[in-house]
Structure prediction request, 483 residues.
Amino acid sequence: MSAAGVVAAVDLGASSGRVMLGRVGPNQLELHSVARFPNNPVRTVDGLHWNILELYRNALVGLRSAVREAPELVSVGIDSWAVDYALLRGDRMLGNPYHYRDDRTAAGVLATHALVPASELYGQNGLQVLPFNTLYQLAADRATGDLELADRLLLIPDLLGYWLTGRQVAERSNASTTGLLHAAGGWNDGLIERLGLPRSLFPELVAAGEAIGPFRPGVATEVGSARLELVAVGSHDTASAVVGVPMLTDDCAYISSGTWSLVGVELPAPVLTEASRAANFTNEGGVDGRVRYLRNVMGLWLLSESIRSWEREGEQVDLPALLAQAAALPGAGTLFDVDDLRFLPPGDMPERIRSYCREHDIRPPGSRAELVRSIVESLAAAYARTLATITELTGRTVRTVHLVGGGSQNELLCQLTADYTGLGVQAGPVEATAIGNVLVQARAQGLASGSLESLRALVRQAYPPRSYRPAPPSRSARDSISP
Prediction:
């Protein structure tokens, strides 16, 4: 292991992006932000799209700032949300990537399962059925003829990596979310053929830690450094986030809490049982060949979209004050099913929640503080149900829950998660995704060494988590927590 060095993480979330500098060395891990920018989708006549060119421009601006601040910068890694992609013909992108919240894929689910039954599909890819999974989006593209012109598909981090380096690859952890990889292997050529997809769409797979290549000369000039190379990281943001979870033993679970909540454990092999499929759990690729066994649970999207609804009415919202008011309310909040599909698209979230409650003969939350309490409490209850199911499906005992990402700053959410699970919660770090991105690069550059556990020990040393204990009487997973 060499002396300390500097790498940069381009971390693109569903609502914002950032460029982070990381200095890593023996017993040293320091991160700070050099650029932050919004990620606002755009609705056009044909649907909801990502503004991918603006994201790329902001990433370049951020990297230029990173080089100015740290001329010794040696590498860059990119992570983003999963499943979405661009179609290319040669060097040309055929259209702005669709947003996974666009409603075009409903027919794609039916068309895919007509060709390969859901139970058989799970045995091959191990994925939770979500209507926006890549293979369902591709079924929609096939139906509209959009695949006829395309000769390549690149997931979002791989697309930006191609523009930086000129090399077209697919990083394995993110590729595992397409549904077109074997549950523990490479591209599933037989499945791709059965679904009527061109095999040529899918590029070479690379693993986290592999060097993708140097920046193209024009890009190097634009960012101000001719020495940079792109290194593959866990390019699905949750894969990077799990690297940054400071869990050192096998009796830990993680919750990566942001726009989505990813609730799971790390396993050496996938779980492909019928019970796992029925519970809608997913087996996604992780760094170093680990399996992220988890379930996607609706996340802080419910809260952020509620705030956007109130702000559209012309009012300013003080979220810390609202959370404090919500925490001070007596008794438990109204519980609802956070995973109801009505909550997936953008729109008037407070009215949707109240409508759900009325339909299910549940008292709707009244004030804004009551609605915030209802959202946070319902998320905590969903986490508890999911963790209880994980122990049933895997036989693994969970004694500690690590909650990372933006949700780790929400003290009410952390405490209620401890209350509902009956387990100790370790909160933080907030920037787990960028930390995991940086650490995989650092290991590839010889700035850090060892297993994931040794990297996580460095995270724990640099960013000690905050502890939450269940408040008596515990609202544990043994209690009735159904919405």
The chain has a mean pLDDT of 95.
